[in-house]
Amino acid sequence: MTENFADRLMDAIARKKAPVTIGIDPVYSKLPPGLVGQAGLNREADLESSLDAVLEFSRRVIRLVAPYVPAVKINSAYFERYLWEGIEGYYQLIQEAAERDLIVIADVKRGDVGHTAEAYAAAHLADPDLAGADDLVGPDAVTVNGYLGADALDPFLKVCREDGKGVFVLVRTSNPGAAEFQNTMTAEGQTIAEHMAQLVAKWGVADGLVGKNGLSSVGAVVAPRDVEQAKRIRQILNNSMLLVPGFGAQGLGAAEVAACFKPGGTGAIVNASRSVIFAYEQPEYKQQFGDQWEPAIEKACQDFVAQIRQVAGM
Amino acid sequence: MTENFADRLMDAIARKKAPVTIGIDPVYSKLPPGLVGQAGLNREADLESSLDAVLEFSRRVIRLVAPYVPAVKINSAYFERYLWEGIEGYYQLIQEAAERDLIVIADVKRGDVGHTAEAYAAAHLADPDLAGADDLVGPDAVTVNGYLGADALDPFLKVCREDGKGVFVLVRTSNPGAAEFQNTMTAEGQTIAEHMAQLVAKWGVADGLVGKNGLSSVGAVVAPRDVEQAKRIRQILNNSMLLVPGFGAQGLGAAEVAACFKPGGTGAIVNASRSVIFAYEQPEYKQQFGDQWEPAIEKACQDFVAQIRQVAGM
Description:
The structure is a homodimer.
Chain A: H1 5-16, E1 20-24, H2 33-36, H3 47-65, E2 71-75, H4 77-80, H5 83-99, E3 103-110, H6 114-124, E4 141-144, H7 150-163, E5 166-172, H8 178-182, H9 192-204, E6 216-222, H10 227-236, E7 240-244, H11 254-258, E8 268-272, H12 274-277, H13 283-289, H14 293-312
Parallel strand pairs in A: 1-2, 1-8, 2-3, 3-4, 4-5, 5-6, 6-7, 7-8
Helix pairs in contact in A: 3-5, 3-14, 6-7, 9-10, 13-14
């Protein structure tokens, strides 16, 4: 029988003792000089050269962090930017991560309805079913935008049930401008983010989605702006995994992150992207490692895991 | 000087006297038997064969409707479903439509923040700037999801200003389940959809976005559930183009559509997808054209234009 996604994720977190995911968000202009100085990778304005550099960097990051973390979050936008060739590379990276026993969260934030949602679920969550592509695996989970309502999720939930995969619905995002919409109060006295959390909780208890740990395959993306908001959303989404972005670089503090976990340090996974993958740019790691960008990333990943382990009380 | 998107769209609508866009949402299982019976296009489970069929169909639909409508809406999901090869085809279709002087609305419903939003704007709205892809043009406008707030739009708005392009922000979608979230009341006594409309109106009046007709490059996707909702949203978005999906197949009536227009039949463009592109499946066209799927699509497009012209009071 196919294992529930939340169970798989919880097990993977427990094995590595790391409720952490690393975000693969490569940007050419921030790649290590040692890498982009190589022949063939050194022309930013050239599609082939810049894409090759971005992919080589991403592959190396995945290999560096694989021993320490249970999951990576790969954001499709950074590959869509290189058109269809970028998308080919994006699917290759999913294979690369899967081969290293990492859980792959595809950060695609799609949201559409009916047949269009079916097409997105086939493209971005299911394992490809077309001869000519059926040796590929899809990611383990995907981020989705719930603005369009339950219809937008249904085709994804079908894949969750049948293939043991998961979704994370955007509830509260980490960007400075999120509050303008997401913190607007509803007539019920909740923020829009909390209202979305309630819908996610409801969608998540449908048949075939709750695992043996009591957690649903339907999780949420939550970057609370303060501890009170974190507690409210944690309570509403009592049976959901929270994917928590924005720690550090985007201003989320340890107290807010701690409030996203359930007692015992379960129920949440915290993402770091730039603070780890571009660690070689930071004075603290630069001083220690100089031009050695790979050890800098490895060390930043280890530091991040240790930090979140402590925050989670694991 | 680059012409404002809303001005370009209004001019194109006036030239064809057709406030109409046709949605390119191809699904293999619905393609005409006369097309999928051809060698090389007849294996649904094979990536290459099914994608070739979907692309050939889409190209022919674009050519059929080009004389009658000012714009097509191409939904990326139906091409993403065929992985990177599908995306290559998707960009080819954008070129095909642009060469026929059609305004291209890329229905991608993206929404992310910061650097990720920049990557999406580069991938899906700007003309590609990378050597190796710089002979391509991007679409004229794109649909975006505003759940993440203004940050998600900013990189797109930069392209709107610099290159005369446009965005349509999701306000009220046409699916049955849309109401659960979008009709929730805020503390101010509006629906969430109306609150989003207010934000869109605010974002749309920023410097460099309003054209000589007084309309903004920032439009909205609006499929109101009743005439009152249509009127309220039309009023809030007084200076925006409304992209109206869902007429016919998805249950939106003539009265709701009429209420989306400004006096004189301006300010809105109505989309039809399945009712036109799969017209050969409908008894009324089947009876008239038999297996001749191309004349059926052409006639359905003409009928749709005539119908909306009347509804708009043009």
